[in-house]
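Retro notes (design track)

What went well: tokenization of the new backbones is finally stable.
What didn't: we kept losing track of which sequence belonged to which structure.
Fix going forward: every design gets posted as structure first, then sequence, in one message. First example under the new rule, 58 residues:
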């Protein structure tokens, strides 16, 4: 049996969410915020990006 863990669509949605979260965290860190604040803002962006891209990618 040769099954994949994720579909291509799910992998794309998670990849786009991770890229948005990483970009947000890096830009937040460049503003001089604390590392914990940068990580939290990146995680928040990831949490908002995944449902957004889920509705966008069809």
């Amino acid at each position: 049996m040769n099954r994949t863990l994720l579909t291509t669509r799910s992998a794309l949605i998670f990849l786009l969410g991770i890229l948005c979260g990483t970009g947000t965290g890096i830009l937040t860190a460049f503003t001089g915020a604390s590392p914990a604040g940068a990580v939290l803002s990146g995680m928040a962006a990831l949490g908002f990006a995944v449902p957004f891209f889920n509705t966008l990618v069809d």
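Added context from the reviewer: The two ends are 27 Å apart (CA to CA).
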